[in-house]
Amino acid sequence: MKPARTARTAGLLAGIALAVLRFPAPAGAAGQVPAPTTVVDSLNRSVSVPGKIGRIISLEPEITRIIVALGAGDRLVGIDYFLRHHDHLFPLVFPEGLKLPVVSNQAQDISVEEAVRLRPDVVFASPSEFRMAESIERKLQVPVVALASMGRFAGLLGEIGTLGQILGREERAAELVGYFQEQLRALDRADSSDPPGRRPSVYLAFWNSLIRTPVSYEPVDAAGGRNAASGVLPEYLGAAGATISIETLIAWDPEVILVQGNYPPTERRVSVGTVLRDPRLASLRAVRSGRVHYTFGFWYWWDPALVLVETVYLSGLLRPGAPAGPGLVATGNSIFEEFYGVEGAFSALCRILDCHEWTAR
Amino acid sequence: MKVRVEGLKFSYGAFSLRVPSLAFAEGRVAALVGPNGAGKSTFLKCLASVLPPGRGTVFFDGHDVAGIAGRERARLVGYVPQEPGLTFNYSVLDFVLTGRAAFIPIFSSPARRDDEAAREALRFVGLEDFGPRPVFELSSGERRLVLIARTLAQQSAVLLLDEPTTFLDPRHETEVMELVKRLAVETGKTVVVSLHALDMALKFADDMVFMKRGAVVAAGRPDDILDEALLRSVYDIPMGLRDVDGRRIVVR
Amino acid sequence: MSGRRDRRTTVLSVLAVGLPLVLSLVALNVGAYRIPPKAVFTTVAEAVFPGGDGPGPSPYADILFRVRLPRLLLALFAGAALAVSGASLQALFRNPLVFEFSLGISNGAAFGAALSIVFLGRGFPPQPAAFVFALLAVLLVVAIAGRSASQVVTILLGGVIVSALFQALLSLVEVFANPYALQSLVFWLMGSLGQATWSDLAVTLPVIGVGVAVLILMRWRLNVLSLGEEEARSLGLDTTRDKIAVIALAALVTAAATAVMGVVSWVGLIVPHLVRMAVGADNRKVVPLSAGYGAALLLLADTVARGAAPFEIPVGILTSVVGIPFFIVLLKKSGRIWL
Fold it and tell me: Cα(first)–Cα(last) distance of chain C, in Å?
């Protein structure tokens, strides 16, 4: 399964979905039960899903977030462990979600009894649990669709389109996709004014570790940076994490170091402070020039609104010469409002993560 | 070294060993004989303090062995088991050297005098060139002799041997028993041997102890206690005593 | 034949010291950051004999003394610890297939350390908890194996059971840990020397040093203990005390190493075995030589683990790839004891 191909496929489906939308529904269709649709998921499986979906179990945080953004959050009957207990963003945009039962645990095992009890019409799962999708389908006799962005914008947008198609929210999906692409284009316009080849090298210290890094992280690329770790792992693995050695980091000598900050400060073993104070890293350009910052990063893939905010934020960090727009918090709030219809969500998030420290230097 | 036993009792499971009073003198070979399950091995292990006695006392020259610490005790009494535990293919010399454990503190290694004691022991059993040979390559007779050499290296005054002649062919049987006799005669050790071959006992032992089902049936010099009634009561089959060429032998 | 063996022993003894030294020099020169050998030499020389004003702070000194050196020392000490503990346990349990991993010590230590890291936080050293659970693991194995502890298969089964138990408990810890602590835990479990800093080593190296030294001092005693409980006792040993000492020391050094580098196994099996094949079973030679070759082996494995690719290969995986086939061959041969 290659995410690039998947993204194209997903994008194609999104396009088809959009094309279908142009034509008004035939008269009298409102009274009929919609026919089942067939979708191709991220594992290249053809899955037939019912036309009308009223009860959803989502085991993949990224998918759950998109479902909420599509306005179908009320159809969720079961979610996963991480989103319910450890994600601090989710309660801000979908507080009702905290009442939903948890169907899978840390090891991404599914509680079959719980799932059966909830009588879902469809189950969304993570494609990295390859066998999981098959076994869930077998156990529950319910269609399972495996979707994930795999750390690519194209994948994310395709995912939104597919989910829109499955849930009958094609219009809303198109709206979100369009909005996302519009924001990216705005950043692109700023980029084109830079001479090429001036992209600063960026190292991402993710997942609470100095030596674990995603070899490909599109927000960095879109914001005008160059991932220092690109090429360490084969391209098709996308945003998979690689573990490097400290020496490799020192050898790369990135101009900017971004530390993942998308979790409470009390849990951080690696912080901007520890990086700046680490005696082994004293000779790095990034450390000497103080270009060590937080960024959001991801656990269990993306939140579509947050990754967009992140790209805007990084654009400001990596291209200081870019024309000033509205402040980050204002931009963040408006993006969140667009996706989730909630006001001030980004400000609330920033209070939890101490974001005001991020750009204060 | 005189060994004296008073009121010894030891039980495990259904088996119970009782030795009310017994003594072993130095410079003599005492043979423990009796049918299987009589408790000969158990008794020897109790004497060696390999097994803790349930009750009763073992005296070495008047001292209660229970009060003597392990390393002291090992310098007093050496125990030769039936079969050596052989997991690792040590050289014969290294194997015999382990007999010096009582003289070597925990963080030390053998010194020259330990080496010499080991070589001396090998000489006594007639295996003086066997030092570098790996123990796995020895025949069972040679293994027995090496085992005895190890206990000799302990330089203990008392020597307890548990069935040293089992599974040996006649020639090796005789070799081992002659060695045992020499130990008592030449070095003045107190030697106690358990045997199931009566004729070996008759030939080499100065004293005999007949055991059956955990009890001592008779003990003393063969001339004094040996008769056909005793043999039958111990072994439960009719046995005869004959004089052949001036020696007493047992026939079935 | 004896003369040949003595000469072989001498050569191997020299190598047991020389090989780690040579590998250390190599390891100082290997790494993603290219430092020319001459620069390595001058940087080290300058640190040992501080000259006047040398050149300013260079990345060379940082890399050599803050990145490569601690890692190198950990590999040497941990390798020696694992090999010596393996050799001692094999003698004690009279079983050539026993080593810290097959006795459940590694997983016990890992569980203890994980428990400590997750619930007591990173500020608290994980070694004490690792040690406690390493000991607990051995006690459990001995209890399960019972009197037949010297039989090859029984104690291995006990070890498998106890290892599985602690693996399961470890998974339980993962369930209750929050995902942020979990990330570093999972990678550490696979075995990596890259996470250790000087402050970790401040506890680990002395503990390992003392433990290995004491085990080496007890090397001849191991010969006697390897005869078995009854015989050792008849030879005058307080077998209970000696057994407890050996087990405690083996668990101590293994736990100290595991607490900083995760589970790295098979060194304790491979090295003593190869040493015995070369110089015979006498522990006076086996234990010290195992220390030297264990150090060399782990250093070699770690240098490959970090030098072969820009990303880190967990060194535990490398040792497993070599160790498991080795173990299978040994297991098949264990019917005919030929050590």
Answer: 17
